């Protein structure tokens, strides 16, 4: 890619809830001289975001008031090609990506611009991979999807564990079981809209999850649904099960579908080990709590899938509309902690990924911002061109950046304490 392009990073969708916060993050965290532009379809709204952030931010590395604005429509491929030809990297926050993202990715591949986004729409990403991967690889273009809370913790967490298994244990990685042991965060209307769209695409997978939950809960036995791998550890379990390591009941985690598929895809591409797989669940206080979480999540998703009930939820402000999301104080008070248990042929070791802000916004903005900066300034021959998850494209370079920003990605022979566990984190921020 030529270094003579006008911009280093173009934030596409800068007027969205996430896009505005991404512009702010880049203004605060980019190297001096970084050229950032704001993009979208409404010039007036883009000017409003620019003026608002310029008034809010002072003495920052990048002057928001000096940022250019570029205007285009997500369906206008010709105009998008003109726009992306001016930038090294496009960071897109415009979803659902199935509806609004395809032409932008096609434009990036056609005009040789690198790209990152925060989608969790796995079928759409695979579609882009099938359609554009060969051309992107041939042109040395990097299309890194799923660079937010979907799916950086699981994706880079497994990448970290595979590195450890290879470098320290001299063995391939067999399986990783992830468990969300603590989380506090809000959700935006855009994320919910994307999730509803995703479920409509993946009805069959969701139905299999539901059947698994029913069958695995029969008798509520701790041994139900367990299989053992070569190391003697239990990993493949029912959707509600008891975890012997954590000594806690585990339940359905709403992001497990996309995270398991993404980490598995990366593991096959990077050859973590023969038959590598990743599964993910959420810790609960007890069996009743585990069942309640699963039923509540699935029931809430069903209500969001139908237009009449969705409008009622919007009208009563039970859920936010697209473009809305949590406030800054709520974002600062969020956190998450992901415990990871990994197996090789000879034994088990552990990882921990955690963050100290709202996972869907505070952490996602960090992940996305550093992904864009990584593509803009760290790209070298170790980066794999094509349409892939972030670990496949940026790998160690992105992991290093996130660690430098205080994101916990740790690995060792024994279970690892988070930066702060769920109860400590909550009490600390409430003081």
From TrEMBL:
| Boundaries of every Saccharopine dehydrogenase NADP binding domain copy | 9-141
For this protein, the parts annotated as crossing the membrane are 287-306
Q: Name one Pfam family in it.
A: Sacchrp_dh_NADP
Q: Which InterPro entries match?
A: NAD(P)-bd_dom_sf (IPR036291), Saccharopine_DH-like_oxidrdct (IPR051276), Sacchrp_dh_NADP-bd (IPR005097)
Keywords carried by this UniProt record: Membrane, Transmembrane, Transmembrane helix
The UniProt entry's GO CC annotations, sorted and at most eight, read:
lipid droplet; mitochondrion; plasma membrane
Q: Name one GO biological process term.
A: glycolipid biosynthetic process
Keyword ATP-binding attached: no
The text of the family note is:
Belongs to the saccharopine dehydrogenase family.
According to UniProt, the name of this protein is Saccharopine dehydrogenase NADP binding domain-containing protein
Source organism per entry reads: Coemansia spiralis
